[in-house]
Automatic annotation (TrEMBL):
This is N-formylglutamate deformylase. The keyword Hydrolase applies. Pfam families: Hydrolase. GO terms for cellular component: cytosol. It is an enzyme of class 3 (hydrolase). GO terms for molecular function: N-formylglutamate deformylase activity; phosphoglycolate phosphatase activity. InterPro entries: HAD-like_hydrolase_sf, HAD-like_sf, HAD_sf, PGP-like_dom2. Gene3D superfamilies: HAD superfamily/HAD-like, Putative phosphatase, domain 2.
Amino acid sequence: MSTHAAVFDVDGTLVDTNHLHAVCWWEALRQAGHRIPMTSVHGAIGLGSGDLLEHLLGPERDRDEDSAISAGHKALYGTWHERLTPFDGARDLLLRLHADGRPVVLATSASGPELKALRAAIDADEAISETASADDVEAGKPAPDPVRHALDLVGAEARGSVFVGDSVWDMRAGRRAGVLPIAVLSGGVCRADLEDAGAAEVYTDTAHLLRNLDGSALGRG
C-alpha cells in the first residue's frame, strides 16, 4: 500500500512570519549598504538565504558579504522567536491529518533555534512525523529537492502526496517534485501568482483549508 504524505512549508503557511522575515532581511541588507525595496524583499521570502541574496543582489554581488548579511538577518529575527504566532487552524489541521493516518512532514529552510521556535509556536509535535530542512539537501526551493527529501523521510510516493505552501517558490518546488501543490494566501502572495506558479487549489489560510478539508485534495488523498 502506497503512502501519501502531507508536506507543509512553515513560514507564512503555518506560522505568521513572512513579514517579520522581510523586515529583518531589509534591515540586514540596509546595514550592509544595500537599499532594496521592501516589496522586492517580501517577494523573495521562501527562498533559502543564499538564493534570496542571489535573487535580490544578483550574481555579480560581493559574495564575501553573504555570511554577514545572513547572520544579521538571523540575529534580528531571533529577537522574535518567543513571540512567533501560528495561524488559526494550523495546529488543528496537523492533528486532524495525523488522526486520519496521513504522515505530516515539515519542509523548511529553518534549522536550529529558529526551527525549535517555529515548532513551539505550532505546538503539534505529536502530529509531525519528520522535518526536512534545507540543510539536508543541495538545492532549496524552487528546486524539488526539499519536497522529495520530505517524501523520502516517510517513504511516501509523490503521486497522491500534497505540498501546502504560501509562495511561488513552494508551488514550483511541488510541481517539480511531482506532488500536488496547494496554496494559502496567508504569506501575502496574490492568488494569481500562486496559480501561475502551479497551485492546484488556493485557500485563505490553514483555518479555511481545515474547514474545507474533506473536499480538498489534501483530504481526498
